[in-house]
């Protein structure tokens, strides 16, 4: 950040009075510009024994499989964001959303949330950000072609929890992507 979004003046990094972190502060109007983590919300859409995955048509990880998810917009709840992203990426309608996984990714200043959800019907298709959308049984999941660790971990938890039909809300920190992909 070089300029203030309030007045256009130059900004500097310093620790404001009463704070304990470096912040961008406008030298002209003294506005403090806080930069906070971004929230990604998505769904684990389920139809019977299958889950719905999207093959990404955009970077990052273009061509890899993911759960429908994306950044929250101002003015919406996490559930609304997850529902909207599922409709945008998979043209799929979901119901009975239940918070399922919450992942902290401090290394990229993001928080991921996934809701378990039921597909309303089988009327789904690839949205603009997807190359293809398909239902998968557990045995057919393309594990080595998953786009993000958050997706793989959510699916691992789901298939493990499905056996006992108990789906606790899980909150975990995840390692940087490079560490994840070096394991695979």
Automatic annotation (TrEMBL):
Annotated Gene3D superfamilies: 2.20.70.10, Nucleoside Triphosphate Pyrophosphohydrolase
Keyword field contains Magnesium: yes
InterPro entries linked: Nudix_hydrolase (IPR020476), NUDIX_hydrolase-like_dom_sf (IPR015797), NUDIX_hydrolase_dom (IPR000086), Nudix_N (IPR029401)
Domain called Nudix hydrolase: residue spans: 36-159
Any coiled-coil regions, as ranges: none
Keyword set, alphabetical order: Hydrolase, Magnesium
Stated name of the protein: NUDIX hydrolase
Organism, scientific name: Metapseudomonas resinovorans
């Amino acid at each position: 950040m070089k300029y203030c979004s309030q007045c256009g003046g130059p900004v500097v990094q310093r620790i404001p009075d009463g704070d304990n972190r470096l912040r961008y502060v406008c030298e002209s109007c003294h506005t403090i510009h806080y930069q906070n983590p971004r929230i990604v919300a998505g769904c684990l859409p389920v139809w019977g024994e299958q889950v719905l995955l999207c093959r990404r048509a955009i970077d990052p990880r273009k061509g890899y499989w993911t759960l429908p998810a994306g950044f929250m917009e101002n003015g919406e709840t996490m559930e609304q964001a997850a529902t909207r992203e599922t409709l945008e990426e998979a043209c799929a309608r979901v119901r009975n959303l239940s918070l399922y996984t919450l992942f902290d990714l401090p290394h990229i200043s993001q928080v991921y949330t996934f809701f378990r959800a039921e597909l309303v019907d089988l009327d789904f298709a690839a949205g603009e950000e997807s190359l293809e959308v398909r239902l998968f049984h557990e045995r057919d999941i393309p594990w080595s072609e998953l786009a993000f660790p958050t997706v793989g971990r959510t699916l691992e938890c789901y298939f493990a929890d499905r056996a006992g039909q108990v789906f606790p809300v899980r909150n975990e920190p995840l390692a940087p992507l490079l560490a994840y992909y070096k394991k695979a």
